[in-house]
Amino acid sequence: MTYDILVIGAGLFGLATSAHIARMRPDLKVALVGPEDHRPDRGVFSSHRDMGRVVRTVGLDACWTRLNVDAQNGFVALEQETGRSIVSRNGTILVSTQAEEKDHYFGSVGSLIDVFSLHGTSMVVRDEATTTRLIERVSPYNAKGLGGKRAIFETGHAGYLSIPQLKAAQLQRFLVKNRGVEVRHYIDDIVTNVRRMHKSESYKVSVASGTALQSKVVVVCAGAFANLPGLLPRAVDIKLKTETVILAHIGQEEASRLLKIPSLLWEDEPSHGDYEGPYLVPPMDYGGSDGWCIKLGANLRHDVFPTHYEQVKEWFTAADTSEQEAVLVHVFQRLLPQVRVNRFSSKKCLLCRTATGKPYVDVVDDLGLFVCVGGNGYGAMCSDAIGKLTASMCLNGAAPQDLRASWLTPSKL
Predict the structure, then answer these.
(1) For residues 359 and 161, is the Cβ–Cβ distance under 8 A?
(2) C-alpha 10: how far from chain center
């Protein structure tokens, strides 16, 4: 099969990129290639196969805030277009215990609110007493356990994402027919090689099933696996980090009581260094035997940094995470000591960090090979915006003028 554009990776970036290409240029023949199900027997592992992710508006800096704002507007349009409920707009509260001289985020949050006109949906408090009162007013979180010195409470579009609904909506948008003609294909397969064919000025894309694919333009949205042999001509400068999350399984009654609580981000400074930056997603129905669960994760002292695929595979299939789970259970009980939990379970994830701390969206060669990679732990909440700018790069050769190129360019490619 021959295509105008082929996108590698059916995660959040790949889905959003494909959907926006289809929306901008419905006449083009486009393929999205990536495995649909989490199948360890196929050697496929990722961090996007999940239920919920926190949504905030004011990001770490201007780049992330711009992407968050654009994505939240995009989610509204996507919900209206597909009829799916993607974002639960419960609000998000970020609480910091850091010393003022170390708290760079709160040093810049005021200017970000000004630049992006977020005064109506962002409440910032900068002393312990007011922070305690805010936590007690808007949430059931243990204010004493949080020990916050500063906080920001965001309403508007902040809260949390339903990842299954987001993926289904992006795929629904992508597969819409052009005047009754099917010009876009989703291919449930694994790409093994991308080879430039100079005579035809296109790329041959090999997949595990053996099907022969060809495309004028290829976009690699393979996340943590972008550097697997055969995808890119040179490695992109990314660093992988393992992450463990726990699910607190609760009953229907407890879930109903907590359903409207805000998401939580906690910038804590524990003296023992066991964890950093815990986050919590309110109750979601995981279905089946899992039922209703509250999700909590954090950077942990026992996290590892895989450098090749075999280490990634070992992490997902064999690594013992009992120590990580114990730390996270302790954090959960400190945050929500009054919640009746039936049991705890854990899940394994993988983060993709870049040297710049920003997503990489760039052209790789002089023909039509592009890369979009590097959520840095913040990619889900702004994935629609990252997909849109990747689509713009592919179709127009440039990102929007008000997005600095230095934000998006890989340091090594």
Answers:
(1) no
(2) 13
Using CA atoms, how far apart are residues 407 and 374, in angstroms rounded to an integer?
Answer: 12
Buried b (16+ CB within 10 A) or exposed e, 282-311: bbbebeeeebbbbbbbbebeebeebeebee
* Mean pLDDT on 32-41: 75
For the chain, first and last CA: distance in Å?
29
Query: Residue 266's closest CA among 295, 242, 297, 243?
Result: 297
Q: How many CB atoms lie within 10 A of CB 120?
A: 9
The DSSP-derived string for 116-180 is: TT-GGGEEEE-SHHHHHHHHHHH--S-HHHHT-SEEEEE-TT-EEEEHHHHHHHHHHHHT--BTT
Give the pLDDT band (50/70/90) at residue 143.
Answer: very high
**Which pLDDT tens digit goes with each residue over 171-202?**
999 998 766 667 789 999 999 999 999 788 89
- Alpha helix (H) residue ranges in 278-403: 309-318, 322-335, 383-396
DSSP 181-207: B--EEEE-S-EEEEEEETTTTEEEEEE
Place of tokens 């630049």: 115
Helix (H, G, I), strand (E, B) or coil at 246: strand
In Å, what is the CA distance from 324 to each residue of 11, 303, 345?
26, 8, 11
The half-sphere exposure of 35 on its side-chain side, counting CA atoms within 13 A, is 20
User: Is pLDDT at 48 greater than 50 in this prediction?
Assistant: no
Q: Can you tell me the distance from the alpha carbon of 250 to that of 345, in angstroms, rounded to the nearest whole number?
A: 11
